[in-house]
Each structure stands twice: as C-alpha cells, then as structure tokens.
Amino acid sequence: MIISGLLKPYGISFKKYNLQHHFKGFVAIYTAGFTQTFIATLNYTMMIIWLGSSNGGLCPALSMGRAVYYAWLLLISYDATELVFKPILSLISDRFGWKIAIILSTTSQILSSAVLIGGEFQNLLLSRILQGIASSISPTLMVLTSNLTDDGERYVGVYMGFRGLGYLLAPLLTAVMKDPSRHFIATITSILAFLQIAPLTVKVDLKFRKMNVFDLNIAFQRNTYLLFLLTVLASVLMGVRFTLIPITMIKRGFTTQIVSMILTLSFLICIIGQASSGVLIESKHLIPLASSGFILSTVGLIYILFAVNLLELLIISLTVTLGSGLALLSTNTLLTREARKTNITSTLGLNGLAQSMGELIGLIVVARFSEINFDIALILIVMFTLAGFIISLFLRGKY
C-alpha cells in the first residue's frame, strides 16, 4: 500500500496489473508468440550451420562467399514474406475471426518444418517463406494481448518481450546441440508448432468487435500513418543490429564468440526494457520514449567511428538495440490504443508491414553500401534515426 501510494502521482497503480482473471489467456498468447519466434530462429540458425558445414553442406568452406549470399537471401525472404502476409492474416482476423488466422499460421509453421527434410537450397528457401507466413500472425497475437483487459495495451511490451526470448534462446540451444540431423530438427519444430494454437485452448474473452469491412478512414488518419512511418524508421535499426554492428566488431578484430555474446546481452537488455516500459509507462509518455530511443540509437551509431575497445562496442550495441526496441514499443502500443474499437488487427497488420519494410531497408542499405564505403552506410542509417526523432516531435502532445 505504501509503495502504491508513492507511485500513484506518476500514474502507476498496482491494482491495474491484477491479471489473475486473465492469467491463462496471457500465458497462452505469450506461449504462442514465443514459440513462433523460437522455431523460426532455431530453423534459420541450423540453416546457416548446414550451409557452411564441411560435411555435406551446400556451401562448404571453399565457397564461403556463396554461403554468405545464401544466408542473406534466406534472411531477406523471411522479411519479404512477412511484409506481404502480415496485412493479409490481419485482415482475415478482422473479417473471419482470429482463430482462423491462428490455424493458418500454425499450418504454415508445420509445413515449414516438414520441407526442411529435403537437402536442397530450394527446401531451405521454401521453409523460410513458410516461416514468414507463420510469423505474420504476430499482429493478431498482439491484438489478443491488448484486448484481454480494458488497459491491455500496457501488456503489448510484455508480449514483445516473450517474442524476443524466442529470438534469444534458439541460438543458445543450437550451441549445446551436437550436430543434429535435419530429421531431428524438423520433428522437434513440428511438435513445438502445435503450441501456437494455445490461445484456442483457453477461453479468450476479447474487448474489441470484429468488423466485416476494413475502414480505411481509421487506418489512415494522419497520426496513424505517422506512427507507421516511425515504425519503418525504428525497424531499420533492427536490421542494423544484425549487420552493421557485427561487421564493425569483426573489423575491430573481435571473435565471433565475443560478437555473439555482446549481441545477446544487448538483446536481453532490450527485452527487459520493452516489457517493463510497456507496463509501467503511461500512454502520454510513449512518444517522448520513442524520441529518446531514436536519440539513443543516433548517439550509438555516431560513436561507432570512435569505438576501439570491447566496452565501447558493448555500449554501442546496447544503445542501438534498446533505442530501436523502445521506439517500436511506443508505436505498437499507441496504435493498439488508437484502433481498439474497429479494425484493430488490420491496422496493426499494416504496422507489421511497416516493420518488415524497415528491416528490409536496413539489411539492404548495409549490405549494399558497406561493401562500397562503410561510412556511407553509417551516414544513411544515422539519417534514418534523425528522421525518426524529428517525426516523433510532430506527434508530441497528440497522445
């Protein structure tokens, strides 16, 4: 009671976070979100290992350049598929119901595991495309999270955190497995895929209504498409953290183990920051939070030019990863609140399209310009982050 009284002036009340009535619903949705990212990341990590394996790999050590190209193609195909199918599955959720969308997503996930058994690159590519379709359920799951309670948008950050854990834990599992076969990975991921239907097994009483027609007036209000744009710019940084930052560390002479450790730690901090900020911070502070995220990322990116030791590179990775995570949390949470009463899933589906587009831009910019001139790639990314900060200023006071 004493702590609650101290926090009350800041708009934080512990009684708002009493989730006992909806506990099973939250657990089911978070399980589905975690499972989806865990399977996609586990499969992709194993694909990279299979590509470069000297024992039957598609691109053994003598043609490692080809393996890098194939790895990039597998990464791009996943994001490109999400870009197309996030709006589609979200529209299906609004028009025909979220349960049908979850069933379609789970089916695609199971098929993605099944085609892994084939030994050709085409099998890996098809598997990634099917995984992209499966992961396009994310906006729908985010909607389910936000509509379990009257203030459910607070828990969008927690949902994003559980998805992040899937990205984080899958590579750790591959590190302790000893050369698992394709059949083993396909079997395990196929079984795990059934966890994605967890929301269907519990009573989920939602607070939003399903629409039969997609209302473009709701989706394309001025503030809404500015939030979409913020999502694009923040997502560019998501692509950067997997490309520009690791490239910088490797050029500085650090081993891949150290690079992996730093990226993992940064991602863990990002997950904690997203989950706690989503629950504790009131809606009116989310745009300033996004502005702070873009400034953090800008400072971190500029400092890349001067960083030489491990501690400095760790700080850079933390600032860029956390900054982009907080900006994405802000846009997802605000869009959830703005579209609560109509077409919420379709609106977040378009935001998912914006996120995939941003990640693709980040990956392509770094891949294209870092080969020509590393500084040019860095300057372009900094311009994206500064643009995000400026746009967030236009939204100050709107929420």
Report on the structure:
By secondary structure, the protein is mainly α. It folds into 2 domains: 17-197, MFS general substrate transporter like domains (Growth Hormone, Chain: A, Up-down Bundle); 211-399, Up-down Bundle (Growth Hormone, Chain: A), CATH 1.20.1250.20. 74% of the residues lie in helices and 0% in strands. The chain is built from 16 helices and no strands. It has helices spanning 2-7, 23-52, 64-96, 98-114, 121-135, 138-146, 156-176, 182-193, 216-219, 222-241, 244-251, 256-280, 286-303, 310-338, 344-369, 374-394. Helix 7 (156-176) packs antiparallel against helix 12 (256-280), helix 10 runs antiparallel to helix 16 and helix 12 runs parallel beside helix 14. The longest helix is centred in the N-terminal third of the chain and has 33 residues, at 64-96. It is globular. The two termini are 30 Å apart.
Instruction: Supply the CATH class of the largest domain.
Output: Mainly Alpha
* Helical percentage: over 70%
Radius of gyration: 21 Å
Please work out how many helical segments DSSP would assign.
Answer: 16
Query: How many E strands?
Result: 0
Tell me the quaternary state: single chain
- Which secondary-structure class do the elements indicate? mainly alpha
Shape: globular
Fourth-level CATH superfamily of the largest domain: MFS general substrate transporter like domains
- Uncertain runs: 1-18, 54-64, 209-214
Spatial gap, N to C terminus = 30 Å
- By CATH, the architecture of the largest domain is named Up-down Bundle
CATH topology of the largest domain: Growth Hormone, Chain: A
The percent range for strand residues is under 5%
Main β-sheet description: none
Mean pLDDT score = 78
Number of domains: 2
H/E topology pattern: HHHHHHHHHHHHHHHH
